[in-house]
Design goal:
This protein is α/β, with parallel strands linked by helices. Among the domains are: 43-168, Rossmann fold, CATH 3.40.50; 424-524, GMP Synthetase, Chain A, domain 3, CATH 3.30.300. It contains 15 helices and 27 strands. The strands form 6 sheets. An 8-stranded mixed beta sheet has the order 3-2-13-12-14-15-16-17, with helices on both faces. The chain is globular.
Length: 525
């Protein structure tokens, strides 16, 4: 059966570009803070935001940046992130957001894949940006927030004349962002999201998530990640609220910013919620203004959800989505009477859900477990330059096959209980086993390798490697872990290694990771 949303269908404008939509009410409150840098207090008002976007767009236009060109943002969260993001979108350009902790090689791979023309970063990561530029020759110019030798200062873009050409955007066809996701398996792929996809998701959240103009939101979720990009940065600007950004999560800094700026809403991930529920230092801070915690990006257990609610007396709900769905598909209303611990809520406006039997392909009924399929206006156009992967993920009827296992209860609430897909979710961040296996196999001592997720209370899941060594090769687990750590962003580090005599594989040679996952589960019990 098809499970439909309990909410009325969203009314989605079909002829607006993203920036015009997000900032359509900005003129009503030009002096109100739109973005605040949490550590320094540096503030950008709505009036300043609109003006700065126009100035930067005019400067980029003079540099030859045009509709369809790709601009990479390789930066932690700062208020200027929103300025460059929307300046690119204003010109009909495409923003590809990059994890600022990526190595130079990982950055180069992404830039090369999407043919990014320009890149912006912060002084701390400029050296890696230059290394990446040597590999990805498509990057013509590097900009930097602040000042650093060897890059064009972002401030120079603010010296533009404000003259922006009239750009015709086809919202349903033209891309606005290209975040990268591993999908259900494999290496990261560019997720093609249009202006319409993101606008649709913002409209779908209206009246489901009750953020409003009086709210102050903590911007600790990275803006490069679809959750921070859309639910925090875009949705809060759309409703006219204030975002207080943090460049990284450090518990005491996070708590002091919550207290100092009287933050009312917090979009978080389970590892941060775990700290709020259990760390003794939390008791030293006044969090009385915080009214709602919204959890996403990884499963929040019913126990942890109840623990943080009881400790802080703050309504805690969770939602669900994918990079490929712009991202939200499910959200729990924050009415305490409608919260079900462990559930991600009903589907949001204009979103349909099916639960499908893995062996027969038949639709399942209430309470039956199968793969979660979703259809709605927020579903991506596909993966960049990957028609095969796109066809495997989105069927001819527009249903996206999520790779997640779940069931829907009699009230239409979705419970996500397992993953069919092989991705590891470390603190809500995707880690592709295939990527780590490829790096392990490049080591001279390794004959074969497989990587799987294993449960971890703080991180949710951590990568564990099973390694077969070549004959007469001796190497310690620590050495292998260090070898990988030098080549990948911190969230991709292998945290455990087990040496084995063989890796279980199918007749066709495919690694049977599920067998290894089951072995780990059996050992744990």
């Amino acid at each position: 059966m098809i499970f439909k949303s309990p909410f009325p269908d969203a009314v989605i404008p079909e002829n607006m570009a993203l920036t015009a939509f997000v900032l359509q009410k900005a003129g009503q409150h030009p002096d109100k803070p739109a973005l605040i840098d949490g550590p320094s207090g540096r503030t950008v008002t709505y009036g300043q935001l609109v003006g700065a976007i126009r100035l930067v767009a005019s400067s980029l236009h003079k540099k030859g940046f045009k509709k369809g060109d790709v601009f990479a943002i390789y930066s932690p969260n700062i208020p200027e992130y929103a300025i460059i993001f929307h300046a690119v979108a204003t010109l009909g350009g495409i923003v590809t957001t990059v994890n600022p902790l990526y190595t130079a090689h990982e950055l180069a791979q992404q830039c090369q894949d999407c043919q990014a023309r320009f890149l912006i970063t912060v002084p701390m990561f400029l050296e890696k940006a230059h290394e990446a530029q040597l590999i990805a020759a498509c990057v013509e110019e590097i900009f930097v927030f602040g000042d650093a030798e060897g890059a064009t200062p972002f401030a120079s873009l603010l010296q533009g004349d404000g003259k922006v050409p009239e750009i015709h955007v086809n919202p349903k066809e033209d891309l606005v962002v290209l975040p990268y996701s591993s999908g259900t398996t494999g290496l990261p792929k560019g997720v093609m999201l249009t202006h319409y996809n993101l606008i649709a998701n913002l409209c779908q959240l209206d009246g489901v998530i009750d953020f409003n103009s009086s709210d102050v939101m903590i911007g600790v979720l990275p803006f490069f990640h679809i959750y921070g990009m859309v639910v925090v940065m875009a949705y809060m600007l759309y409703v006219g609220g204030t975002v207080v950004s943090l460049p990284r999560f450090e518990l005491e800094m996070f708590l002091s910013v919550l207290q100092e700026y009287k933050v009312t809403r917090a979009c978080l991930v389970p590892p941060i919620i775990l700290a709020l529920a259990k760390h003794p230092v939390v008791a030293n801070y006044d969090l009385s203004h915080l009214k709602l915690i919204f959890s996403g990006a990884a499963p929040l257990s019913a126990d942890l959800q109840q623990a943080v609610q009881q400790r802080l007396n703050i309504t805690t709900v969770q939602g669900y989505g994918l990079t490929e769905t712009s991202p939200v598909t499910h959200a729990t209303p924050n009415d305490p009477a409608r919260i079900k611990a462990g559930a991600v809520g009903p589907s949001i406006r204009s979103t349909e859900v099916r639960i499908v039997d893995l062996s027969s392909g038949q639709d399942l009924e209430v309470g039956q477990e199968g793969e979660v399929w979703i259809r709605g206006p927020q579903v991506m156009r596909g993966y960049l330059n990957r028609p095969d992967a796109s066809a495997q993920t989105i069927d001819s009827d527009g249903w996206i096959h999520t790779g997640d296992i779940g069931y829907v209860d009699s009230d239409g609430y979705l419970y996500v209980i397992d993953r069919l897909k092989e991705l590891i979710k470390y603190k809500g961040m995707q880690v592709a086993p295939a990527e780590l296996e490829g790096l392990l196999l490049a080591h001279e001592a390794v004959a074969d390798a497989a990587v799987i997720p294993v449960p971890d209370e703080e991180a949710g899941e951590i990568p564990k490697a099973f390694v077969v060594l070549k004959p007469h090769q001796g190497i310690e687990a620590e050495e292998l872990m260090d070898y990988i750590a030098e080549q990948v962003a911190p969230h991709k580090k292998i945290r455990r290694v087990e040496f084995v005599t063989e890796i279980p594989k199918s007749a066709s040679g495919k690694i049977l990771r599920r067998v290894l996952v089951q072995r780990e589960r059996d050992k744990a019990h």
